[in-house]
Design the sequence.
């Protein structure tokens, strides 16, 4: 059952809960104050971190205003003198501290205050230790690996510059880049580079420039500063935003002693804003000198090639075949005549030899021909169907025969047959 389900008490009876109060049956003011105090006193103390922006120390109590290091949120804290006296060094404005706070409700006036039960300055060593732990964690994720860093364009057409308002760093980058390459163009974003708004301001400018297709490289520049001033450039959110950017990012913080994490995640780290200007654009005078050197080298190579080829032509012209070119034709003509004579002689010998062979074969053929056999007195006897008679049985009496002799042929009739 909740408070709304509880029936309203009778008039004149104090409601047990705030939800049961009404215009006709309200709480006494002291009861609300007592219940608020009881509720607030149940809250446990909490350790918080912030920066001291106001400090008013009196005899036995100090009034401190703490501001969040990443947001525009402030809180008033009351610290007793015993806590302040326990500090090794006096607390000053601008100091970064961690404090144990306990809410306290002043019953008589209804004022809520924060009581500082303990306060400890955050020294440079503590900040460096925090940065180093974050550095190791991000390195383990691979955000600092060399293989994920992108190469800068040889000649960027437009450079995005994120820097402080009217800062020396901005002037150094613009002036030195223009001296090296007068045609360079910048897209400048002047933002807070220290304080509670620095991280969000730099990240906003980075996202805007990274979304522009005409920006080829982004430079984040600041002219150095104390470790506390450079803490925004080691903020995890900013480091991850730079790692996720599609455009190459150059870090030009200009602080050699304590390197912010931005130097590790950036695609290129420049020692100073001036160094960044020198590394993102080429020197036009140096490039012209290199062009002149390349042109001179090319001319030397061409001259050397022409001289070499001229010498080769001179050597070729001095050879006998070019000095007396008709001699080559004469020698080849003699060779052709000599080879032609040899070929003709060989052909004639072959023709004579084969003519003799043909005559010999003709004699053999004639000697073996049937006509020669007939010339020797033999005859060929054929039947009416032109088949040759080889046996007397083929020509019985009365068979018409055709007889061929050397001089011609005649017909006859078989009258009788005899066997060998």
Sequence:
């Amino acid at each position: 059952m909740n408070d709304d389900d509880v029936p309203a008490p009778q008039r004149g009876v104090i409601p047990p809960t705030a939800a049961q109060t009404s215009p006709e049956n309200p709480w006494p003011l002291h009861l609300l104050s007592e219940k608020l105090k009881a509720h607030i006193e149940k809250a446990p103390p909490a350790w918080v971190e912030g920066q001291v922006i106001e400090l008013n120390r009196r005899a036995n109590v100090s009034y401190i205003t703490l501001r969040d290091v990443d947001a525009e949120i402030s809180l008033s804290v009351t610290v007793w003198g015993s806590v302040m006296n326990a500090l090794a060094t006096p607390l000053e404005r601008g100091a970064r501290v961690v404090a144990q706070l306990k809410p306290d409700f002043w019953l008589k006036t209804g004022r809520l205050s924060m009581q500082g039960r303990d306060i400890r300055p955050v020294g440079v060593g503590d900040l460096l230790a925090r940065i180093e732990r974050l550095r190791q964690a991000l390195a383990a994720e691979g955000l600092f690996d060399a293989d994920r860093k992108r190469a800068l364009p040889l000649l960027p057409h437009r450079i995005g510059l994120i820097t402080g308002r009217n800062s020396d760093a901005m002037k150094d980058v613009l002036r030195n880049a223009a001296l090296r390459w007068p045609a360079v163009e910048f897209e400048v974003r002047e933002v807070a580079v220290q304080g509670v708004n620095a991280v969000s301001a730099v990240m906003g400018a980075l996202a805007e420039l990274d979304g522009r297709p005409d920006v080829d490289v982004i430079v984040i520049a600041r002219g150095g500063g104390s470790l506390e001033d450079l803490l925004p450039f080691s903020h995890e959110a900013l480091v991850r935003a730079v790692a996720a950017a599609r455009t190459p990012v150059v870090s030009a913080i200009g602080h050699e002693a304590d390197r912010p994490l931005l130097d590790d995640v950036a695609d290129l780290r420049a020692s100073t804003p001036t160094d960044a200007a020198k590394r993102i654009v080429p020197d036009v005078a140096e490039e012209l000198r290199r062009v002149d050197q390349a042109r001179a080298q090319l001319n030397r190579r061409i001259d050397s090639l022409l001289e070499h080829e001229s010498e080769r032509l001179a050597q070729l012209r001095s050879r006998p075949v070019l000095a007396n070119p008709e001699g080559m034709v004469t020698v080849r003509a003699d060779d052709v005549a000599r080879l032609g004579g040899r070929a003709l002689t060989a052909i004639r010998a072959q023709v004579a030899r084969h003519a003799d062979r043909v005559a010999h074969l003709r004699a053999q053929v004639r000697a073996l021909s049937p006509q020669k056999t007939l010339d020797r007195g033999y005859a060929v006897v054929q039947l009416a169907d032109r088949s040759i008679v080889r046996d007397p049985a083929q020509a019985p009496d009365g068979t018409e025969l055709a007889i061929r002799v050397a001089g011609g042929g005649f017909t006859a009739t078989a009258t009788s047959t005899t066997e060998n």
About this structure: The chain is about 40% helix and 20% strand. The longest helix spans residues 325-367. The mean pLDDT is 85.
